[in-house]
Amino acid sequence: MATTGCVFTHDNEAAFDRIADALETMGYIIIANCLPLALGEALCERSSHLDGKLDQAGVGRGRVLAADGSIRTDGICWLNPDNLAETAYLAWMEQLRLGLNRRLFLGLFGYESHFAVYEVGGSYRKHLDAFQGVSNRVLSTVFYLNPSWLPNSCGELLIHAPVGDALLETVMPTFGTMAIFLSAVFPHEVAVTHRKRYSIAGWFRGRK
Could you tell me if 172 and 149 are in contact, meaning their C-beta atoms sit under 8 angstroms apart? Predict the structure, then answer.
């Protein structure tokens, strides 16, 4: 597993080097303890107060966006820049955007993200976040907010090879872990969870 125990401070240059190297060579990276602990805890606290604020996630894009519980079951809440913890998270991702653009010339232009909450029994079938040749989502990120997650809780992120059926990574949604991967390259899914599961999903976009 391409896991790195990075601790990010105000000086992220070495960490961004490591992330860029992994994206360039493998196309993805799984990072443990990637955000400052206090920020992760604040986001975790925030996620526990989302009941009543969640919308059913949809499948598709634009006019064909529709809820389909046979494909995905999570509830979502888009990040609010008026919340201090969410603002700090968005600021950190902006640093990452700039850092990756300097190193990889990805042309990352904007970032969008939402909380994703899966109830017990929830899942998301195998899918891509973007399609080859379409200038939209370039890089996907998932940050996990689940303290004391146990293996029998399941709900793993499963990252598949771009071609064929090989499983590349099984990622436990443990608090402080972040997955970053090329959106149009790696099919992935969320396995059925046996415990309520929280994360922040996000996408760096390119210019249209």
Answer: yes
Q: Give the pLDDT confidence of 138-190 residue by residue, as tens digits.
A: 999 999 999 999 999 999 999 999 999 899 999 999 999 999 999 999 999 99
Q: Is the CATH number 3.10.200.10 carried by domain 3-206?
A: no
List, as own/partner pairs, every contact residues 82-90 make where C-beta atoms lie below 8 angstroms and the sequence separation is at least 24, other chains included: 83/46, 84/42, 85/39, 85/42, 85/43, 85/45, 85/46, 86/43, 86/46, 88/39, 88/42, 89/35, 89/39, 89/43, 89/113, 89/143, 89/200
Q: Which residue has the tokens 């293996």?
A: 151
User: What residues have CB less than 8 Å from 133, skipping those under 6 apart?
Assistant: none
Query: Model-level pTM greater than 0.85?
Result: yes
Domain ranges in the chain are 3-206
